[in-house]
Amino acid sequence: xxxxxxxxxxxxxxxxDLDSLNYARNVFGILREGASVKMNPQFPVPITSVERPxxxxxxxxxxxxxxxxxxxxxxxxxxxxxxxxxxxNNDKPVDTICCLPIHHVGGWMQVARAxxxxxxxxxxxxxxxxxxxxxxxxxxxxxxxxxxxxxELLKSEDAVANLRRCNGIFIGGAHCNxxxxxxxxxxxxxxxxxxxxxxxxxxxxxLDKDDFANGINGVxxxxxxxxxxxxxxxxxxxxxxxxxxxxxxxxxxxxxxxxTSDLGKEENGYWxxxxxxxxxxxxxxxxxxxDFVEKNILEFPSVKxxxxxxxxxxxxxxxxxxxxxxxxxxxxGLKEFxxxxxxNFEMPKEFYLSENLDAVxxxxxxx
Length: 367
Fold this sequence. Notes:
alpha/beta; Rossmann fold; GMP Synthetase, Chain A, domain 3
């Protein structure tokens, strides 16, 4: 197993997020000792496994409320990186910017891509992209963002100017609404919409930046070495070499295919992700898909991000609750907008506003 050396880390010396830089170096220190690494939020932890090769163990984000651990071998991460190289169709080193949480696959793959593809990685807070002095740093680099980060950066002329210097900006992790997409097109940003997850070591489909610029939506086409199909219920099934070890070793005759929790559709080779099947709210005997409600809320101008959940209710059994940021969203206007898109039983019974969705975990909300 070939691991980064001092020459590689020297190219990261312009990093300002030193916590993430040190985290990454500690991960490789553990791997060098022959152990696997549990990617805990605060710091990486060595673990010993005689059943599997040295691996990185990531937790899913727990969208369905039940986070799971997934083991990725060094070879699997290499396969995911080579997949991107094939998509980009060039032999030049891939230099990345890491501004996603390093303990998640989305953040870690910025490190893996840089190492496997002969480039460098710089660790920064995404808000630093709005500083004019970061212009040179962004030159010809690739970075990954979630839509909420792009939403904030589009407010800054300096950020937009810096992002234009990038070779590519991969957007994933959540639905990118039409307002954000249109602003990014108008700003002529090199946006690639993508689809992937912890289980696959990141992206398995990508919408090319030219397709995006021409107004095409969705998550694009499958990448090299990836196979995708729909089962009889419309769920997305994926087969690829970067599938986590725990799924590949599963005791199943069909274990080559990973059954996701996403419903999707495919047309002429282009994929769209519709919603998750493991998030359903039963309200008054009616089944509501939170993802569908969220996507409609995200289409309202000025909404940065949202989360739709439920709470117990004597009358309805479960009532729909929407958490929305930022705090300045016009709640009355939003309700009127949603009434033109949702059926009555799909309308949230309660709306809570705050500057950050972390508020779901305890910060005060404007009601």
